[in-house]
Design brief:
Blueprint lengths: L2 H9 L1 H14 L26 E6 L11 E3 L4 E8 L1 E12 L5 H4 E7 L7 E4 H4 L10 E2 L3 E4 L3 E4 L3 E3 L2 E8 L5 E13 L8 E9 L20 E7 L2 E11 L11 E5 L7 E2 L3 H4 L8 H4 L3 E2 L3 E7 L7 E7 L5 E3 L2 E6 L10 E10 L12 H4 L7
Parallel strand pairs: 6-13
Antiparallel strand pairs: 1-12, 2-12, 3-11, 4-9, 4-10, 4-12, 5-6, 5-11, 7-8, 8-9, 13-23, 14-22, 15-20, 15-21, 15-23, 16-17, 16-22, 18-19, 19-20
Length: 377
């Protein structure tokens, strides 16, 4: 099985797992194949019974007409999903018509699991879909995609045991002409044992604070690193999206990733450079020859004015092939330049699963602070 086929299988793994769990629970003495392999494992999950009921919640016109969207006034919150009982959201799709230049930063997506009063997803809508600098870019990846026509797609499975709610808030000063929404899900009798909850957290530094003037540039403790996410509990990291707006000429990505797992003092995982963490190399091709790319598990679908003041990058890295698991604590960080010697603007989202809905998020920055702007000395 090649990498892309494997990644596609992983994207559908939750529903496949439901099918396998159902079959195993119903028939513990299942037949064996000629090679001793359980027969169920030799078949794709879609050839077996999938528990639950396929459903959709959307913005369709309740009168039967063709106004299949919601307009949104400034300050308005629109509930786009509400379900009781157990289930799993399998796909989220939006498209937005708005005259506001920065509506991808101004609209905020939130999701609540099992009746919690605080959200486990709280992200500007563009950032959630990997458009971290508020501009549309066509790309396809294992879990997120943006298509021509400005359609936004998410394939992260989002299970819930008692209920789920999702809403979009217009925090901008101008009305949104149309928010179209389609959310596919399955209603279930219950979740399989040890099912984890989906989380997505937004962070930014505009700018990162450059550490300069030191005789020897070393960084062993990561205390000045940019932080993608910090959480307590048990779970696994699925990846990040990141937007970089350069505040000075030069290469922004000389920083190493440092991931702290179950130990708040020392990183367990140390990388060799930002472009290496993003599974590319050599500055994405350098100042003159960089070109955008988007692959299943990693990519940089936006590269503009490479290594120049005002340079813009959308990048992502998924860990679906080997999620970073943690038992009590996770802090995912990366240097901004070697030993944090650069002061560029970072806007990021971390995506992970955890054994309970985790809601201890940092406060979302005010909307005017989320707009990407070059910060020169």
């Amino acid at each position: 099985m090649d990498r892309q086929t494997s990644a596609r299988a992983g994207r559908r793994g939750f529903l496949g797992g439901l099918a396998g769990w159902s079959l195993a629970a119903a028939a513990p003495g299942q037949a064996q194949t000629g090679g001793g392999e359980p027969a169920a494992q030799a078949l794709p999950h879609y050839t077996r019974r999938i528990p639950g009921k396929s459903l959709k919640q959307s913005s369709y016109d309740r009168t039967g007409g063709n106004r299949d969207y919601w307009p949104m006034a400034p300050g308005e919150t629109r509930e786009v999903f509400n379900a009781e009982g157990a289930g799993v959201i399998s796909h989220v799709w939006f498209t937005i018509a708005s005259p506001a230049e920065y509506h991808l930063k101004e609209l905020v997506l939130r999701a609540w699991w099992d009746g919690n009063s605080k959200p486990s997803v709280e992200v500007p809508i563009g950032d959630f879909f990997g458009l971290n600098l508020a501009s549309y870019v066509i790309y396809q990846s294992a879990y997120l995609a943006c298509s021509p026509g400005k359609s936004l797609n998410c394939y992260f499975a989002m299970p819930y045991a008692k209920g789920a709610r999702m809403a979009v808030t217009n925090e901008g000063s101008r009305p949104v002409g149309a928010l179209y929404s389609n959310i596919d899900y399955r209603a279930l009798d219950s979740l399989p044992p040890q099912t984890y909850y989906f989380h997505a957290q937004y962070r930014q530094a505009q700018p990162c604070i450059a550490i300069t003037g030191e005789a020897e540039k070393v960084n062993l403790d990561g205390k000045n690193n940019y932080v993608f996410v910090e959480t307590h509990g048990r779970g696994h990291l699925m990846g990040i999206t990141l937007g970089v707006l350069e505040n000075a000429d030069g290469w922004w990505g000389e920083g190493d990733e440092m991931i702290f797992v179950d130990d708040e003092t020392h990183p367990v995982i140390n990388g060799t450079g930002s472009e290496d963490y993003l599974l590319a190399s050599w500055d994405f091709g350098g100042r003159e020859t960089s070109q955008p790319f988007a692959h299943w598990m990693y990519g940089a679908p936006l590269i503009q004015a490479a290594e120049r003041t005002g340079g813009r990058y959308h990048v992502y890295r998924w860990h679906g092939d080997n999620p970073v698991s943690f038992n009590s604590y996770l802090r995912h960080t990366i240097e901004h330049g070697h030993a944090n010697d650069r002061g560029d603007n970072f806007f990021s989202v971390a995506y992970w699963y955890q054994d309970a809905p985790y809601t201890d998020f940092p406060a979302l920055p005010p909307v005017h602070d989320r707009i990407p702007r070059v910060k020169t000395p």
